[in-house]
Amino acid sequence: MSPRPAWRAALSVALLAVAAASAHGQPAPAAAPVDEPAPPPTEEPPPTDEPPPTDEPLTPPPPAGPPVAVDPSAADPEVTAGESLGDAAPDFGPMIVLEDIQVVGNRSTAERVILRALAQRQGEVLRAGDPRLSKARFKVLALGYFRDVSLALRKGSARGRVVLTVTVVERGTIVLNRLWFGTSPLAPWWLGVDLTERNFLGSGLSIGGGLVFADHGGVEGARDQWGGELRVGAGGIAGTRWGAFGTATLQHGSEPYRIAGDFDDDALDRFRAFSYRRMGVRGGARFDVTPTTGLAAELRVEGIDADVPVAPTATLPDGRVVAIDLGLRRGSSRVVSLGLGFDRDTRDDPVLPHAGSRVQARVELGSTLLGGSYDFTTILARYERWWPVRPRHAVGLRLAGGVVLGAAPRFDRIHLADVNRLVTPRVLGMTVATATPPDFLGTDDGGVVYGELGGNAIVEWSYRWFRRPRSVYGGDLFVAAGAWGLATDDQLRTRTASPWDALPIDLVVDAGLRIDTELGVFEFTVANALGRVPRW
Amino acid sequence: MVTRAGLAATVVVAAALAAAGPARADDPPRVQEMKFTERGKALLVTGSVTSVFDPGAYERLGNGLESTVVIRLWVYPKGKTVPVAFQLLHRQVVYDLWDEVYEVALSSPSGRRTVKVKYRAEALKLMTSLDAVPIADVSMIAYDTHYVVAVVAELNPVSQETLAEVRRWLSEGSGGGLDRGGSFFGSFVSVFVNLKIPDADRVVRLRSQPFYRPRPTEPPPKPRKP
User: Fold this and answer.
1) pLDDT digit string, tens, across residues B104-142
2) What predicted TM-score, i.e. pTM, was given to this entire model?
3) Do the Cβ atoms of B11 and A459 come within 8 Å?
4) Which of A70, A438, A439, B2 has most Cβ atoms within 10 angstroms of its Cβ?
């Protein structure tokens, strides 16, 4: 293996520099400086050697008026008017009394759901220019149930009294979350779908779920897999910043593990599989600290019934037979855990971002003290940041990583597909392929599928192909490249180098097209395609 | 095979690239004739951004709710991308249903004034006309050099804060299931109710014709008396 400290140091410096800028709340280097107006699009030709001016000259000075100096640093053009010159002044416009609030156009959505989203109440006294009135439209739009929302006032029964009319145009609220399909030697075909009805019976409740089936291939011990999930959620309960969610999941699975061969030997006779069943519920609450920052807490209870071999072993390429840890208790076991999550999202667009950042962190603590069978802690963190570099072009940095401490069940460890998008992702948590990732750097990643320490660092270039106001909102072309690593605690414990040098690291690349539509987001990428067909 | 050193270089170069260059929008502006005058120490521009209103927006001026127009003006040396001056104007209008007048508030760095007019057309003119608006100190405008003025006018712009709130409401999911890892590490995940909220009801981008400031001619010397 080649020496590594130099490039590792360079990578560390680059990543730390970016992280430090974010941690201190400094503007992105590429963003417009606060005291210098950013230029709008000018499409100006490059400077040329022009003849003497022939364009329109200034008119002769008129009689002098009071001079007005304009300081270009007096205002930041990047902020909106509401922020720079004051939002609609609360004292602007005539004083009005909301005599009534009428909702028009709602066929399936309950009126109370719309009225609850509005900040205004019947009988409220306010100015017609009150910014809360103009924001009310967005609060209703944000429900996600309507294609359009418009507000208007008309005269009420007496002077000063008005009727607020909220006109809504409903839209379909069934959303396609995920489609699963593909083929591999382990699962000759798999198919699944995940849908959500965001406005169940017009109540404002979100109810969704997914179903998936995977045929079993020729791996000994494998069986057909199927799984289902049901989710319920409610946001902004009673007009507050609190939300709640709950999920129930059932899996009838079959988990492969390697018993022989080199890490890139994907012959089916090199694997065995054991059956398992998982049934769990997860529920919790979320609180929006600010419009861009949220906290979540949750409780998870899950039962696992696994037909794990009594003493599983694997034969290494050099002929040695070693015991392997499948990360599950034989028979029935339970996972009981508490989780905390943090999310801060300042990106300009959650689907096709070209600016801003997102930070997510999550800690989950499972314990026998809570009634579970496993004592473990998982800490996961993710950071991404986008810089617009030229018109239509942006560069993004995505960092994600995690560590699993203790004896976590197999399914709570970091999976290879979590950190390397060139690997077939799990389907509703179930494994449907055994293909290993390409070994670009020749680092022989050891064939780790589930690890305790892993992550990736990816740089992505994105090109804004098009934007439209309706149906198909936009498309971005992108190319991504970066590094990923995944290791078990055994690899890190029984090593001959420093932990940093012992962490297997390799390259991940991807390229393709992302389409943002009214129905959902679609990715057509190299990695996505590779994950659905048999390979190497 | 890609070497680790090559990988490191790629990441570092990409990070450096990310730290360079300002952000700009990408829609080309429309050229519109504007009038420039010099008054005292101020460079003034006269023009209009009426096109920021379409017939629907014009009708909505009478709905009793506030409408806002934000106008940004930049002065550039022709062919350059760094402005020498910037001006921001903020205008609001609301129709008083009972008094049947339009109340218009005009704000700029020099102050705020409120005007009441009877007719919608008058309100539209107040909201969109650039009537001898000071956009630069003439000391920033070099003699015999070409300049252009770029204008971006937005009707009912939405603050980033409000957009962020909407996005957050829209993206409120219903909690993850057991597929924890995949959803957490994925490049991006799941699709939510994906309603696009525009930054403003309408946006127009204009650019003036080039103009220049002629160097004052020195008066001819007075003939000496014999």
Assistant:
1) 999 888 788 999 999 999 999 999 999 999 999 999 999
2) 0.67
3) yes
4) A70
